[in-house]
Automatic annotation (TrEMBL):
<dbReference type="Pfam" id="PF05726">
    <property type="entry name" value="Pirin_C"/>
</dbReference>
<keyword id="KW-0479">Metal-binding</keyword>
<keyword id="KW-0408">Iron</keyword>
<protein>
    <submittedName>
        <fullName>Pirin family protein</fullName>
        <ecNumber>1.13.11.24</ecNumber>
    </submittedName>
</protein>
<feature type="binding site">
    <location>
        <position position="104"/>
    </location>
    <ligand>
        <name>Fe cation</name>
    </ligand>
</feature>
<keyword id="KW-0560">Oxidoreductase</keyword>
<feature type="binding site">
    <location>
        <position position="60"/>
    </location>
    <ligand>
        <name>Fe cation</name>
    </ligand>
</feature>
<feature type="domain" description="Pirin C-terminal">
    <location>
        <begin position="179"/>
        <end position="282"/>
    </location>
</feature>
<comment type="similarity">
    <text>Belongs to the pirin family.</text>
</comment>
<dbReference type="InterPro" id="IPR014710">
    <property type="entry name" value="RmlC-like_jellyroll"/>
</dbReference>
<feature type="binding site">
    <location>
        <position position="102"/>
    </location>
    <ligand>
        <name>Fe cation</name>
    </ligand>
</feature>
<dbReference type="InterPro" id="IPR008778">
    <property type="entry name" value="Pirin_C_dom"/>
</dbReference>
<feature type="binding site">
    <location>
        <position position="58"/>
    </location>
    <ligand>
        <name>Fe cation</name>
    </ligand>
</feature>
<dbReference type="Pfam" id="PF02678">
    <property type="entry name" value="Pirin"/>
</dbReference>
<dbReference type="GO" id="GO:0008127">
    <property type="term" value="F:quercetin 2,3-dioxygenase activity"/>
</dbReference>
<dbReference type="InterPro" id="IPR012093">
    <property type="entry name" value="Pirin"/>
</dbReference>
<dbReference type="InterPro" id="IPR003829">
    <property type="entry name" value="Pirin_N_dom"/>
</dbReference>
Length: 283
């Protein structure tokens, strides 16, 4: 039995930070169907005016941010004293938990800026835990190539296709995220194994793919696929493609979001606002 395609979703143009232009692949109303994931943004532009303003200092509470850079350089600083430079092929994993105030600013004046930011929810029991931050250099992110020539970037979780196994750069409890980037040549296929019950998403950011067992037309560039939670997964590409696979264990908890705060109740959101306004954020 194969995982079924439940939904095809197209992202929308958006602007965030100090005028950074991007594609918001998903977020906002109805985000429960992507649980445990809250948002996926894609930035992909060579026009410096679209990214030069960056993301000046701003707060987060209650979730994790995952930034995967394909091209360009972004500098991170936060109120805990962390600093880091995200480079092409690198990964940044920030656990906001009870609170972090950070900035993400481009460290370039021209050239291509390309990558993704994913928001991953935290369970209620750890939303007020300690915040943390970690940059992963490109060499710290495992890569492998399958017998069909598919290059796999193993950002998080555990990749297993029955032929290769590789632990990702990051492992997380509770949500058990799997995050892979597949670079698929023409006439290739890949069959990643995922835990039963994991919410699974595919985002095609180059080329097109076919999902085995589905009768719809090929999934084209800039389309997100939401899959059923059980069954095998096999992806084929006749013409070649680049695809993100994002999967995780649903938390099945209430999601109450107010901008950069994601909690379980309205009262917790109001407390986050009070803490931030009083200068007690993250303490």
């Amino acid at each position: 039995m194969y995982r079924n395609v439940l939904e095809l979703h197209t992202g929308q143009p958006a602007s965030d930070g100090a005028g950074v232009r991007m594609t918001r692949v998903f977020a906002g109303q109805g985000v429960e169907r992507f649980d445990p994931f809250l948002m996926l943004d894609q930035f992909d532009t060579a026009n410096a005016d679209d990214y030069i303003g960056g993301f000046p200092a701003h707060p987060h509470r209650g979730f994790e941010t995952v930034t995967y850079m394909l091209e360009g350089r972004m500098r991170h600083e936060d109120h805990l004293g962390n600093q880091g430079l995200l480079k092409p092929g690198g990964l940044q994993w920030m656990t906001a938990a009870r609170g972090i105030i950070h900035s993400e600013m481009p460290e370039q004046q021209e050239g291509l800026m390309r990558g993704f930011q994913l928001w991953l929810n935290l369970p209620g029991k750890t939303k007020m835990g300690p915040a943390s931050y970690r940059d992963y250099e490109p060499a710290e992110v495992p890569r492998l190539t399958t017998s069909q020539g598919v290059e796999v970037v193993v950002l998080a979780g555990h990749f297993d296709d029955g032929e290769h196994q590789q632990l990702g750069a990051v492992q997380r409890p509770d949500t058990d995220p799997y995050y892979f980037d597949f670079i698929m040549p023409a006439q290739s296929a890949i069959s990643p194994r995922l835990p039963e019950g994991h919410r699974a998403l595919l985002y095609v950011y180059e080329g097109q793919i076919e999902v085995e067992g589905d009768t719809v037309a090929p999934v084209t560039t800039n389309r997100l696929v939401r899959l059923s939670d059980e069954g095998q997964l096999r992806i084929r590409s006749a013409q070649g493609a680049r695809v993100l696979l994002i999967a995780g264990a649903p938390l099945n908890e209430p999601i109450v979001q107010y901008g950069p705060f994601v909690m379980n109740t309205r009262e917790q959101i109001e407390q986050a606002l009070r803490d931030y306004q009083r200068g007690e954020f993250g303490q």
